Amino acid sequence: MDFLDGLRALAAIWVVLSHLWILLRGMNAHSGLLGFLTNWALYSHLAVDIFIVLSGYCLILPVVRAGELRGGALDFFRRRARRILPPCYAALALAILIYLVGHHGKPFPWLALLSNIFLVQDAFLKWNIFDGPLWSVAVEWRIYFLFPAIVGLLKRHGPWAVLAASAALSGALTAAIFAWRMDFLLSCPWYLFLFALGVCAGWAAPRSGARWDLASWTLLLLTALLLGRNPITAAGGADFGRHMPMIDTVTGAAIAAALIALHQRPESRLRQALSFPPLVRIGQRSYSLYLIHIPLLLLLSHILNMLALPWLRAPLSRAAALTILGLPSIALATWGFYHAVERRFLVKASSGKPSPG
């Protein structure tokens, strides 16, 4: 279903443009026309919500078709490790090389390296210094270890049991973070529930006779209302951060409902738009794009700083230079990284095409 890759592409593009803008102007909202045109870029955390729900949705589709988790839990872990880890570590190596360019002569942060190797940098944010977006890869990687249990619970007791169990576990972990140590907030334990929403959406989509369009739009409206009440402001995102579990949960529910609605309506204009071939191709390479865009933006920013050209001191000129040079460079590097690294580790489905997720 090409529309899944199209949605994945939009989420990845949102993340890239967001990080480009934040690198230029910081994580602060603006007022007036500038704010109207750019404040959306500050909320790319919601794009990660899309990735998490899509992951659960795509991973359950082969189970729905086969009626079981092919090869069992150990084979699933092996396939996920092959799909996720080699590109992740290759991107980490690239990011470290770029980090060394900008930190020549300074002590190397070995603890940061270890936290990235063991994928715990989401819990130790001060060590998440090489490639910032890898925090979400770490979160999703741990969720994978619960997928076989989710499948077993789904087959025995149905989707409501999965949602109840995942809500209880993620809710307890989230409460512990708020009560004990907010430093762990970016571990996002509530993402387990978003992943479960995606799983249940993929399970329900072929079975449900109900129309999910209204539910999706209603939940998206609720997300907008929550963002309006808890925005990222000129002072930063403290309010947004405190309410992130609620905002992410409603966003995840909206995306899950939208996936069911899109599955039910192959003729819809939105699904056809998401299936636009260039968008689909970006979506198929979105993991590579997600992994390498930040190190490349940081490298380009460092080069512009070294050039010290007077005209680059003006914010508009610097923004133009970083955009005009950065986006094509990222696109070209993504193409190269995908073909040199990621493509080699794609898990093939029986059709010979890369399997979903």
TrEMBL record:
It comes from the Bacteria. GO terms for cellular component: membrane. One of its GO terms (molecular function) is acyltransferase activity, transferring groups other than amino-acyl groups. GO terms for biological process: polysaccharide biosynthetic process. Pfam families: Acyl_transf_3. PANTHER family: ACETYLTRANSFERASE, BLR2367 PROTEIN. This is Uncharacterized protein. The lineage of its organism: Bacteria, Bacillati, Armatimonadota, Armatimonadia, Capsulimonadales.
